[in-house]
Amino acid sequence: MGSCKIIVQDNEILQRVCGTNDGNLKIMESFLGEPVFARGNELSIDSQSSEKARQFNFIINRMMDEIENGANPETDGSMLRSIISASGERTVSDIDSLSDRDLFDRCSITVPGGIRKVYPRTRGQAEVVDMMRRTDLVFASGPAGCGKTLLAVAEALRLVLSHEKNGMVLTRPVVEAGESLGYLPGNLEEKINPYMRPLYDAMNAVLPRDAVRRMVESNLVEIAPLAYMRGRTLNDSVVILDEAQNATREQMKMFLTRMGEGSKVFVTGDITQIDLPARVPSGLVHAMSVLEGVQGVSIKKLGAADVVRSGLVKRIIKAYDDEK
Question: How far, rounded to the nearest angstrom, does the alpha carbon of residue 177 sit from its chain's CA centroid?
C-alpha cells in the first residue's frame, strides 16, 4: 500500500497548496490517477502504489517550500506543473542513487540573506546545478526561459556570500542591434546598462535590492561588458558569461583564458538566438564542440522540456524546433 499523510500547520499555506476551489488538488489527482483528500489541515492519498505516494509527498512538500519562499501558485500557473514534472523524473550520472526529492533538495540554492530559495524545476536544471558544484567550467545552453541565467547567478551569489569565493564577475557581449554605442546618449555606464539589465534582474530575484546595490558599490560584484575582460586574470572568483552565443570565437578564447586560480566559470547562452553578423561563427558553439570531453569541463544542453517561464513559451519554442 502507498498511503501518505501530510499535516500543513499554516492555514494560508494550506489554502495556496489546495488552490481556488481545490483546483491544485484536482490537477494532482489527474496526474496521480488517485483521489487526494483534504480533511482539516491534513492532506492525504491512499493508493495501492508506493510510487504514487512518493510522488504525492514530493509534490506537496515542494509546493510548501516554494510558497514559504514567496512563490504563489495562483499567479505562477507553471509552478505546480513544473513540480509535477520533476516528481516523476529519475536521477542520472553520479546522482543515480538519490531519490527525486533528495536530488532536487540537494541541488536547491540557498543564498545567505536571500529572499527566496532557488529550486531547479526540471531534471536538466538540477544537472546544471550539480555540474556547477562539481566542476570549475560549466557550459549551459538552452532556449529562453529555461532558468540558466538565474541558476548561474544564484549559485554564484551563494558561493560569494558564504565566503567560498572572494568575488563575482558578470559579463555579456555587447552586440549592437542597429545603433552604435557611440551614438547613444549618456556616459558609458548609461550606454551599456540596458545590456546588463537581465543580470541585475537575476540578482534582484534572489537578494533584496539594497543588498545587490551594496555588493555592486563595494565591488564584491562586478558587472562589465565582455571587452573589458581582456588582459585580466580572475582569481578566487565566480565568473559568469551570459548570452555567450554572441561572443566570437576569439572573444570566447580570450574570456576562458582569464580564469585564474580557485575560480569557477559559468557560461550560459542560447545558440538559437545568435545576433552576430552573418559568416561570424559563435564562440559558444565552437567552445562546446572543442571542449567536450576535456577534464574539468561540464556541458549541458537544455531543451524545451526545461522551459519554466510559461507554458506558452514552451509551445513557441517547440513550434520553432519542429519547423527545422
Answer: 27
